[in-house]
Write the structure tokens for this entry.
Amino acid sequence: MEQVQLTLTVNGTRYSRPVEPRCLLSDFIRHDLGLTGTHVGCEHGVCGMCTVLIDGQTARTCLTFAVQVDGAEITTVEALGTPAKLHPLQQAFWEKHGLQCGYCTPAMLLTAVELLNNNPNPTRNEICEAMSANLCRCTGYQTIVDAVESAAAAMKGEAR
Amino acid sequence: MKPAPFQYVRASSIDDALAGLAGHGDDAKVLAGGQSLIALMNLRLVRPAVLVDINRLSDLAYIRQENGTLAIGALTRQSAVESSDVIARLCPLMAEAIRFVGHRPIRNRGTVGGNLAHADPTSELPAVAVALGATFVTRSQKGQRTIAADDFFVAPLSTTLASNELLTEVRIPVWPAGQGWAFMEVSPRAGDYALVGVAATLRAADGVCQSGRLVYSGVGPRPIRVAKAEQALVGCSSGEATFREVAEIAAGQVEPSSDFHATADYRRDLVRALTRRALMVALDRCQKGA
């Protein structure tokens, strides 16, 4: 099987691996790099679970071949915070019960990271619109929106 | 791994991409954002033998004004259109429609050219392109040609683009002063495929409609322009009474089909409601612009 040499940076670490062209970025991140924080759901671009940041922008890794992002910088949920020092969004998801089973949480967090980067002061409607990119079958979404609202306020407080 | 194996060609120039496409017929596909193609490949609904990756062709990603024309490179990401001041100023109809294309993560990867070349009849940009009389510039090893948007879309996922041809640019006349616009659609959930959408433009002065365009997505095999409804606008008083009549004509002219998501009758009703609402918004913008 034809393989292509792929070099990219994930969470600040540079990796160089041979990959099959048909290898999805989601599978590369999980199987080749062992970073299982990125979840896979529908694997055809509907559910949003596999969302990561490619060069700072959200993208669905099940709709991206690894070979397409040669040279790119990828950020996955593993880069956000640590158990000892949670990212403000993680802290807010915890406090506001923004998760139950946790399957959609990595995607929700990274979607919220992009939203707050572009728009530190989102309205509740803007939060709903952004977060609607990902399906959640547990929470009913309201607590997720609460969490993003709360994190936005906390992050502004930090900046002051 | 979900997709079937394929030969991967990473193009480093347009000529490179054209060479990659040549000689493979329909077995070769262009890989731009991949937001529709890879989904179809994951489901193995398509199995191209060769993928020509054009993501390195950064000279195909641009939005610029050239005399009276807005030129958009085929590899321009949809999110770049969304945040472009030039698009907001020179093509507000596209600025409004682009936000309905999938979700932000889709628009970050998905391209303008890919969306148009994919030719999904429920998609927003094809309807916008037809409504605005866009021209598509294509390249093959034989040279360059231009295709009017009206002649480009043939059937679901089918265009007049040849298999060895690359869509390189979309050209749209710069927005005429005083022209109103609206893009509206109805979908089960925000970001889903729309049931019906409408791209509308309107020019009116002194309480009289001068001209308008009405193009619909989701009611046929391609974007459907309803000339009879457009003609019914001309010379009539600009207001809800006229728009109701025009909406009735449009609803009578379209021939939507029924499927799992909605009946033909419901789609026809959406055409009626969206036409009236879109023309009201377009009129308001027309008056504010004048």
In short: Chain B has three domains: 7-53, 59-173, 180-289. Chain B is about 35% helix and 25% strand. Chain B touches chain A at residues 1-8, 10, 31, 34-35, 38-39, 41-43, 51, 53, 55, 79, 103-106, 108-109, 189-191 (CB under 8 Å). The CA atoms of residues 5 and 64 of chain B lie 38 Å apart.
